[in-house]
Amino acid sequence: MGHLQNLIAWATAQGVVIDAIQPSKIPGRGTGILATRNIKAEEEVLKVPPGALRCLESIPSSIRERLPSHTTIQALLAADLALDKSANAVPWKAVLPKMSDFEVGMPMMWPKALKDLLPLEPRNLLLKREKTFQDDWNDFNKAFPDVPYDEYTYAWLVVNTRTFYNESPETLKYPWEDRLALIPVADLFNHADAGCKVYYSPEGYHIIADRDYEKGEELFISYSTHSNDYNLLEYGFIPDENPSDDVYIDDVIFPKLGESQKAELEKRDLLGEYPLGEATEEFHRTQAVLRLLSGTVKEFDRFLNGEEHGQVVQNRVDTYLLKVLDEFLSDVVTKRLQEVDALKVGLEEQRALLAKRWTQIEEIINRKIGSYRERQMDTLE
Ligand SMILES: C[S@@+](CC[C@H](N)C(=O)[O-])C[C@H]1O[C@@H](n2cnc3c(N)ncnc32)[C@H](O)[C@@H]1O
């Protein structure tokens, strides 16, 4: 029996109910879930009972007691996985991605020269994630010094890329972003921005078809509405289509900021993270920094206090933003694409992912420039 068939037999024995789907190898996406017959919308295709979860409650107290009380659920799950040598875990572990998959997709595993060519905002996010990983490893290594670094790294990345939100009386004591669990078989669904519904009941996790599917079609779930910088950093892939994608212009903004302007922004917790997505909450940060760069501190304050009236300042800010976006294209994006192309460091697939991201950024900026120009023409008419 192959690993995937073995997994199904094992999962069924754990009480997992699998209907009309099967895991299969999908080019470019590792393993995914395919329909084995035509499926109607609202059909339940998977149910995973609570007993089959790898979650806070299933972690042996012998592990929890040896790790510090501040240990996150993510780090506890990673510790549990790194230490789990039981035969019961083998069928699930056998279908997990390999370390070589993480080395390609996860920027955490890239050589520094490639990490340095990531856009500034995700580069900063990566530094934070690396610090979290390092802290988790230090705690784990003190408690379990016999487990090698590579084995823990692998377990940590498995947890990082395939957990689900899991609410229980125990996990409610943790911050919401850390209420995590591993759900065998459900963790084989790949991401698309529209996908099957996932919900939890006392019977466990249910996955329900969101629409009709034809036999052989891949079924997806949505991991959430993240930008592709986030998808790359946290999950190690870049979707081709992503309506929630956004671009941060920190790379072009930061070199323009003087020390006193940085201090002004820092004072108000507005230093860094400048997205272009107008629908995002953080777009307010972008509007604020553009006012500071193109106007006076007084105007900047008026904007922050909600005292800006009329269109005059906004029109000037839009014109300034257009200039900034042109600069972003010529001074940052084009340069980065050339640098990635010239670089011989790392694996070809790693460089291809990085180049894909900068190309997407180039396309988004070009679309933005087009829509701002159109808006300006409309205002003039
Ligand atoms: C929850 S797992 C899904 C199953 C996974 N493909 C596997 O082989 O085990 C999440 C991982 O799947 C991959 N993935 C998910 N959605 C993808 C997509 N739309 N395109 C490419 N890779 C995807 C990424 O590597 C991600 O870290």
UniProtKB/TrEMBL annotation:
InterPro entries hit by this protein? SET_dom, SET_dom_sf, SETD3_SETD6_MTase
Q: By its UniProt entry, which Pfam families does this protein fall under?
A: SET (PF00856)
Pinpoint the SET domain residues.
19-224
Species the sequence originates in: Trichoderma asperellum (strain ATCC 204424 / CBS 433.97 / NBRC 101777)
GO: which molecular function terms?
protein-lysine N-methyltransferase activity
- Database matches in PANTHER family: SET DOMAIN-CONTAINING PROTEIN, UNCHARACTERIZED PUTATIVE METHYLTRANSFERASE
Name of the featured protein = SET domain-containing protein
